[in-house]
Amino acid sequence: QLQVVESGGDLVQPGGSLRLSCTASGFTLEDYAIGWFRQAPGKGHEAVSCIPNSGGSTIYADSVRGRFFISRDNAENRVYLQMDSLKVEDTAVYYCTAKRSCLGSSLAWGQGTQVTVSS
User: Fold this and answer.
1) Angle made by CA atoms 93, 46, 78, in degrees to the nearest 5
2) What is the pLDDT of residue 86?
3) DSSP assignment, residue 119?
4) DSSP character for 65?
5) Residue 21 · residue 13 · CB < 8 Å
6) CA angle 31, 33, 35 (to 5 degrees)
7) Partners of residue 78 on adjacent β-strands
8) Cα–Cα distance for residue pair 19/81, rounded to 1 Å
9) Which DSSP string corresponds to 47-64?
10) What is the pLDDT of residue 89?
11) Which of 3, 21, 56, 115 has the greatest CB tally within 10 Å of its CB?
C-alpha cells in the first residue's frame, strides 16, 4: 500500500527557511514521481513542485521558483522541499503525493504538515 507522510512544518518568520520531508512506505521511491501541493485557508489546492522518478526536470510553480528546492534521497525513501525566503502568502498545509509521473494523477496523499509564516 502506497503511503506518504509529511513532516517539518512549523511557525517561521518572513524571510526564514524550513525543510519539509516526505517519507514514503509501501513502495520503491525511485519508481515514482513525488509532488508537493499546498492549501491555504479558504483556497483550493495549489501545485508547488514535483520531482520525476527518473530523468526529466523538476517542476516549480511560478510563485515559489527560485525560493523552493525539491530533492530526493531514494536510499532513505524521502523527498525534501527546502523552502527559503518564506513569505506570509506561503502559509498553508503542505501535502506530498506519489505519482507515476509529474503530469499524472496522485496515487497517495499524506495528511499534510502546517507551515505558518508570520511575524
Assistant:
1) 60
2) 98
3) -
4) B
5) no
6) 155
7) 23, 73
8) 6
9) EEEEE-SSSS--EE-TTT
10) 96
11) 115
